[in-house]
Specification:
With 614 residues, the protein is α/β, with parallel strands linked by helices. The protein is built from 21 helices and 27 strands. The chain starts with a strand and ends in an 18-residue tail after the last helix. It binds fructose -6-phosphate (F6R).
Length: 614
């Protein structure tokens, strides 16, 4: 979704903003722009549909420079992708420049009111209404920070806003309203920054502050002031981020996605470091904030998430229910938020979100909080909003994920849910010690299992290349393999643009069998386990109807390879860990299919890394 970066200080703002916008590209965008306060006292706005490189060329041509500026990458919600709709937006008198991430729900009403009051609106966006509202307040003699505060008090919705005003040079104001995208404030000796994303400030500073809903940050070259929603000055603690700017480099890999797939073996090891005691066969999760008594008293667990994180949540629900014997279910956060769910203080709500900023997931958490549920966040990005809303956080430690399609964060998330399920089972006494020791011990072979799959990359590439002419694919699985099948299909859809569906194999006879033909290959997830025979029947049914089958099986399987067209072998593992392992070949299948189709797997069309609007 939209990216924001702003700088004011002693350096030239232009290269800082352009570099920041380049870094923010991974969030997904369709236009880019900057507004710079120049030495003549003017505010120059340059923007363009298309890539940051195109903006770069426009800026170079204009020979733009200045010490204060705001920049934006737009991900269109209201209004088509064109020059007028790109940000920054400016007020009628050219006084105010504004960038926005989020949605102003009552924009039609506001635009009509502003037009009736003589404002000329030049774009079709919701955001532009805000810049004209600020203009009205500035004309009444308010400071930029008060004008932004009062303008946003008229808005319905959630978003982040960053504005500058020509008559108040050297100052930039940022504000967060609700849970649609964050603002990180970067403190440095050479100037101060605001950005939608930590990564954009890391090349300059690791001293950061995250704004909470309703808060403002007013930055100049030498000062940073924080205010609450009443306009009162507040103290915020400066955090030293441990992330480095290098995390956003892709090294020798052609794409971030491939780099991130390759990192998984090492990353799952870091998810386990200090948390798994292989000697005693136990799990140690000191970050879980709930007492043993609270854990024993939970009478249900609800995991909420979206997209890939929903698939992780589905696996987590099965793990928690089967290990810790608590009724557990995964809910799509965008549905959950509008339900009237039965939850209370004995419900554990687990928000599964790598970014910690997904608008629907945060809204689901807000609702759960109102019902006094206990909340745990499972996230990659420390300091994100979900971590601040939950009672505690389990960091997945996958490392920065830049590719839009999640890979390593899902693997690590499921590993964390696996550890959590064992932790809860231990406290609740629902796992016999020898069963627990086996479940813990098995984790030791996960990194090498992932490495051995990655070493077969060439074979997966060849299979992927055989899929390029397909228009439809079916992914089938049962048990833990059902969410894995959904995830495999999602990866294929999002980066190769091939229609793919993940189905519970038992559902086939209830409709989907009608679609089977030699034109729709099936990826059948049939590893060893108590559902293997059932999957064999499903595979036979597909074959009997002329379907091609690519099967993912456990090495040594003597049945399935005999009846299918192509085989991918997983190292021997339990059903739960087989599901984690199966993600790796499916990620590589999607990746190499996208590459063979000449698509950029890192930046799939119409998708954003962090979905900060609902
Ligand atoms: C798909 C993908 C998305 C995200 C979803 C939730 O590859 O990455 O489906 O999983 O947008 O994002 P988070 O986990 O940040 O809440």
């Amino acid at each position: 979704m939209c990216g924001i970066v702003a700088y004011t200080g002693s350096a030239d703002a232009v290269p800082i903003l352009l570099k920041g916008l380049k870094i923010l590209e991974y969030r997904g965008y369709d236009s880019a722009g900057v507004a710079i306060q120049t030495s003549t006292g003017a505010t120059e706005v340059l923007k363009t549909p298309g890539r940051v490189e195109e903006l770069d060329a426009v800026v170079a041509e204009a020979d733009l420079s200045g010490h204060t500026g705001i920049g934006h990458t737009r991900w269109a919600t209201h209004g088509v992708v064109n020059h007028q709709n790109a940000h920054p937006h400016v007020s009628c008198d050219g006084e105010v420049a504004l960038v926005h991430n989020g949605i102003v729900e009552n924009y039609l009403e506001l635009r009509a009111e502003l037009a009736a009051n003589g404002h000329t609106l030049t774009s079709d966006t919701d955001s532009e209404a805000v810049v004209h509202l600020i203009e009205t307040h500035l004309k009444a003699g308010e400071s930029l920070e008060d004008a932004l505060l009062h303008a946003t008090s008229r808005l319905k919705g959630a978003g982040t806003f960053v504005a500058s005003a020509r008559s108040q040079p050297g100052k930039i104001v940022g504000m967060r309203m609700g849970n649609a995208g964050g603002i990180v404030v970067g403190h440095s000796e050479d100037g101060n920054m605001l950005a939608s994303d930590l990564l954009a400030v890391l090349p300059y500073t690791n001293r950061v502050v995250y704004l909470d809903s309703g808060e403002q940050s007013i930055i100049t070259d030498t000062s940073v002031i924080y205010r609450d929603g009443n306009g009162d000055v507040i103290d915020k603690e400066v955090i030293i981020s441990e992330r480095t700017a290098e995390a956003a480099e892709r090294g020798a890999f052609p794409h971030f996605m491939l780099k991130e797939i390759h990192e998984q073996s090492e990353r799952v090891a870091s998810a386990m470091r200090g948390r798994v005691d292989f000697e005693n066969g136990s799990i140690n999760l000191p970050e879980i904030p709930f007492s043993d008594e609270q854990i024993r008293n939970f009478d249900q667990v609800v995991l909420v998430g979206m997209g890939t994180s929903l698939h992780s949540a589905m696996m987590g629900a099965t793990l928690i229910e089967s290990f810790a014997r608590i009724p557990a279910k995964a809910e799509n956060a965008s549905e959950f938020r509008y339900k009237n769910p039965v939850i209370d203080e004995n419900t554990l709500v687990i928000a599964v979100t790598q970014s910690g900023e997904t608008a629907d997931t945060l809204a689901a958490m807000e609702g759960a909080g109102e019902q006094n549920a206990k909340q745990l966040a499972i996230v990659e990005l420390d300091g994100s909003q979900a971590t601040r809303m939950a009672h505690g956080t389990l960091l997945v430690r996958a490392g920065l994920e830049v590719a839009v399609a999640s890979t390593k964060t899902m693997t690590n998330t499921v590993v964390c849910l696996y550890m959590l399920a064992i932790h809860m089972a231990t406290i609740r006494g629902t796992m016999a010690p020898e069963v627990r020791k086996a479940a813990v011990g098995e984790l030791a072979s996960l990194p090498s299992g992932i490495s051995s799959l990655i070493s077969q990359e060439k074979a997966f590439k060849a299979i992927a290349e055989s899929l390029v002419d397909c228009h439809h694919l079916l992914y089938l699985g049962r048990g833990f393999m059902f969410p894995a099948a959904m995830e495999g299909a999602l990866k294929m859809k999002e980066i190769a643009y091939i229609h793919a569906e993940g189905y519970a194999a038992g559902e086939m006879k209830h409709g989907v069998n009608a679609l089977i033909s030699d034109e729709m290959p099936t990826i059948a997830l049939a590893p060893a386990g108590h559902l293997h025979e059932k999957m064999v029947s499903n595979v036979n049914e597909v074959k009997a109807r002329g379907g091609q089958v690519i099967a993912i099986v456990t090495e040594g399987d003597e049945i399935v390879p005999e009846i299918v067209d192509k085989v991918i072998e997983l190292p021997a593992a339990s059903e739960a860990l087989s599901a984690i392992l199966s993600l790796v070949p499916m990620q590589l299948l999607a990746y190499y299919t996208a590459v063979a189709l000449d698509q950029d797997p890192d930046k799939p069309r119409n998708l954003a890394k962090t979905v900060t609007v609902e």
